[in-house]
C-alpha cells in the first residue's frame, strides 16, 4: 500500500526508491543472487497458474515447486459475506491488458490520490503510470465473476540499502472487498515469496502517515517502522523537516516458509 487509503484497507499503495546504476548492476548478478531467485519464483508460479499463457523468448519459463503447484487456493477466493467468487491471477506488468491496467490505475486514483495531493510528493499521473509499468513489477489481480478487476497488489524484488527485500508497491481493494481478510491474504503471498528465498528476510513498503487505517492494518500484520524510515529533523534557520510517510518492514522467517496462502 504505497500509502493506504483513508478508510481501512481502502488504499494500500507502496512505492520504492530505485537505486540507479548501482542497483542495475546488482540485478545483473549470477543466478545465486537472491533477487533473481525471487523473480524466478514469481515467474514459475505465473507460468504454472496461467498455463494458456505460453512463455515468450524474452520471458523464460521456470518450474514451480510441487508444494506451490498443488495448492489451487491461490487462484480463487470466496467473499465471506456475499459468498461471491473471485479469481486471483499473477502476471508481469507488461502482460496486463489495457483494460486491467486502466482499472488498476483508477483504483489507485480513487483510493489514494487525495493522500498524494496532501503530501509533499503530490499526485503525478505520468510518474505513477510509468512506475506501474516497471518491467520487473508483478501484479496479483483480483477479479469478480464478470472478469473485472476489483483489487490488486503489486510487488518487486529489489535492494534497499544493499539488502535484498521484497517490496510491496501497491495494494488496493474496492469497497466491497475491504475488511474481508483479502488484504491479509494478499500480503501473505508476499511473505511466502520472501520467506521461501533466503537470504531475503524482509518485506518493505511505504505508507503515508495520514493514512491511519493503513497504518493500523500494517501494524496488525506485523509491520513496524524500518530503521531507514525518515524522522523529524531540525534544519537551519529554525526550520524543521516533518516526514509525511513511513517506510515499514516485516522480518520473515525462512525456516517457517509455507508455499501457499495464509488463512483469510
From TrEMBL:
Q: Does the keyword DNA repair apply?
A: no
Where does this chain mainly localize? cytoplasm
Recorded catalytic reaction(s): these are:
N-terminal L-seryl-[histone H2A] + acetyl-CoA = N-terminal N(alpha)-acetyl-L-seryl-[histone H2A] + CoA + H(+); N-terminal L-seryl-[histone H4] + acetyl-CoA = N-terminal N(alpha)-acetyl-L-seryl-[histone H4] + CoA + H(+)
Q: Name one GO molecular function term.
A: histone H4 acetyltransferase activity
A GO-annotated cellular component: nucleus
Please tell me which top-level EC class this enzyme sits in.
Answer: transferase
In Swiss-Prot or TrEMBL terms, this protein is called: N-alpha-acetyltransferase 40
Instruction: Please report the organism this UniProt entry assigns to the protein.
Output: Xylaria bambusicola
